[in-house]
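note to self: dont lose this again. the chain is below, predicted strucutre after it. 327 aa total, dont forget to put it in the shared folder this time
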Amino acid sequence: RSTFDGFAIVLAMGGSGKKPSVSFIPNDGSKTLSFDKDVPSPKSKEMDFRNTLNAAQFKLRVMPNKIEGYIKQSPSLAWNECFVVDHAVKVGGYIGFSAWSGTGNPGRVSSDLASLLEVEVSNFDENSIGEDMKDVSMQIQEAYRQMLTDENRHFVDQKSQTEHLTRLLSMLGEHLAVAKPEDDRLLAQIHSLTSRVDTLGADCKTLQTEAHLLLGKDGVQTQGDGVMSLKQEIVGLRRALVKDTATQRQKLDAVHKNVAEVREHHTKAKSGLSFSVLAKQTEALEKTVTSRGRQMSWMMVVMIIAVLGIGALMYNRMYYYEKKHFI
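---
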């Protein structure tokens, strides 16, 4: 557009020497600009940005009262200053791109190829939100916008710091509460996709085995050979099943035998014969204990008498020796 309200950065061939240059061109919407007359601007800077080995990069830094422009011919090179202009920037607006490579003449060098490979926008204003947070609610956006204001970013005392941290924790808690159902849904979808992929892998392996059985691994096997191979596989599977069945039958027979023995012992334990045998054994044990008790009592009496007798004899002998020596 020849009439616009804002500023433009023009990278073009211009001037008397037709050299590549970078121009800063402002407009307040009241003037009609012309490429032939207004490009390059009086304060333009010559910069060779054409046909570089690597993609050239341009950096534009916009501040409320200043605009800076830098360019470099390769990502590994240093930034070269193109312009630093004092210019008041209005709030709002948009970023636009336009290109015109010209018309080539027959039999001469073709026009330049202009390609826009990448655009990156960064917000350096700590007091404003650079873009809408579409994945959170408006309440969280407003709380975050209020925390970025000057009165909420400079703390007077620990109380204001605590209040700011409390608001931040509350905002994070609300975001987690809102985002958790979506995270759970995504996790469920991932689990479902994982299960489907596993099922697909198992089906692919089965299909591969079937194809090898019917066609062979080299793909040249005849149908008869495939049928014969399939029969052999079925016979081998049947043998394995028969062998496993016999083994399982033996294990089941052993289990039945053990169960029958346990049941028999349990039946005998419940019968009256077992209780009578147990009563007789208890009676015999009581008699044995009583007899042993009597024997121990008599032995104790005998030992006491023997100790008394031995004590009397020792007393008489000591009395005899004392009487003999002192008399």
